[in-house]
Amino acid sequence: MSTYELIGSRGCGSAIVEMALTLANVPYTLTDLPYLKPGPGRERLLRLNVTGQVPTLVLPDGEVMTESAAMILHLNDVAPAAGLAPPPDSPERTRFWHLLMRLVGAVYPTFTYADDPPKWTTAGEPAELLRTRVHDRRAELWQEIDRHAGAPHVLGRRFSALDLYVAVMVRWRPGMSWFQQYCPALYAAAGEAARQPDVGAVLARHFDPPME
Q1: Are residues 52 and 106 in the same domain?
Q2: In CATH, what number is assigned to the domain containing residue 17?
Q3: pTM above 0.70, yes or no
Q4: Which of 85, 91, 103, 135 lies at a CB distance of 3.0 to 4.6 Å from 76, suitable for a disulfide?
Q5: CATH code at 113?
Q6: Which alpha helices (DSSP H) does 11-158 contain, by range?
Q7: pLDDT number for residue 211
Q8: Distance (Å, rounded) from C-alpha 195 to C-alpha 108?
Q9: What Gene Ontology molecular-function terms does this entry list (predicted)?
Q10: Which of the residues in the chain have pLDDT under 50?
Q11: What is the count of structural domains for the chain?
Q12: Distance set, CA 191 to CA 165, 176, 199 (Å)
């Protein structure tokens, strides 16, 4: 098998795909760069991915993938034994799809709007109002997802890529102490995932010291 290239940045969603590549046991190289910093790395990233976002995955045949969920599902096809997604005949399959799409389609965009509100509205009070409302909406979404979460993993007894997402995302705003208080099932699942050596090693590289 030829080699994948993962383009990512420390502390970003590329950590999720990095863990998936490791668990899938496929050969890959990591191009780690501050993806918003102007320079040759940023210029190459924009040539590969017009959004200039990470993760960006270059497949062995040169095809470029730009969405983390697509990368996860591709790797599940390549290495189903890694257990990134439940098998098609599994009773957990429907819930996996539901929660994966909820994470990438509803929670992820809140960071787009709340991280830089003046990009989307007038600076000052309107921007701060947008930030507050998006933060509140994110909290609602996380608490909704927490009600669907099982133990010890998000899907219950079955580990999946959902645990990789949660292990990374609890380290983003609003932070791990908030998750421990308001989303205890997700917090526990994140801790369980982090105890896997391959997962823990990637988390330590991206979030050492832990990021809130």
Answers
A1: no
A2: 3.40.30.10
A3: yes
A4: 85
A5: 1.20.1050
A6: 14-24, 40-48, 68-78, 93-102, 108-115, 125-148
A7: 45
A8: 24
A9: transferase activity
A10: 211-212
A11: 2
A12: 12, 10, 10
